[in-house]
Design goal:
This protein has about 150 residues and is an all-alpha fold. Helix content is about 70%, strand content about 0%. It is built from four helices and no strands. It is flat. The termini are far apart. The model has no long low-confidence stretch (mean pLDDT about 90).
Length: about 150
């Protein structure tokens, strides 16, 4: 039986990143209290939660076996392209178009055929992004390209 190394390493990386963020934020930023949260409260709690999630993935994977999954370069390219489109397109395209196009590109490797569900997914994720970042957090991100 071959161990599930993908989940073991993936969980370990998540746990290491979470612990690193929690340690960095805990050492440099004021944690505050539950009633008066400091700037270090959220990154510390989020880092600990990420570390717990990584452990929850890696520990059970240690005792189970799995066949190694092949890496398809076209899928990897689509995901990296989506990340680049979103990251670099925020300034040029605005949040709405960058998010919409990034979701469409990220959905290309999905095995389910058809474009209608991809467009519905892109519209849904874009709307959720707008609600969270513009209406909820009021981050003031550019929504559309500058004329």
């Amino acid at each position: 039986m071959q161990r599930d190394w993908a989940d073991i390493w993936g969980g370990a990386v998540l746990a290491a990143i979470g612990l690193g963020v929690a340690a960095w934020a805990g050492a440099r930023l004021d944690f505050g209290t539950l009633r008066a949260m400091g700037p270090g409260f959220f990154p510390t709690v989020l880092g600990v939660a990420l570390a717990a999630l990584g452990a929850a993935i890696a520990v059970p994977a240690w005792s189970r076996g799995a066949e190694p999954a092949p890496i398809r370069l076209s899928d990897l390219a689509a995901v990296i392209a989506a990340i680049l489109i979103f990251g670099l397109g925020m300034e040029w395209l605005g949040m709405v178009l960058a998010c919409f196009i990034a979701v469409l590109v990220a959905s290309i490797p999905a095995p389910r055929p058809g474009w209608l569900w991809r467009v519905v997914l892109a519209v849904s994720v874009t709307a959720l992004t707008f609600v969270v970042f513009e209406l909820g957090l009021q981050m003031g991100l550019p929504l559309w390209p500058d004329p």
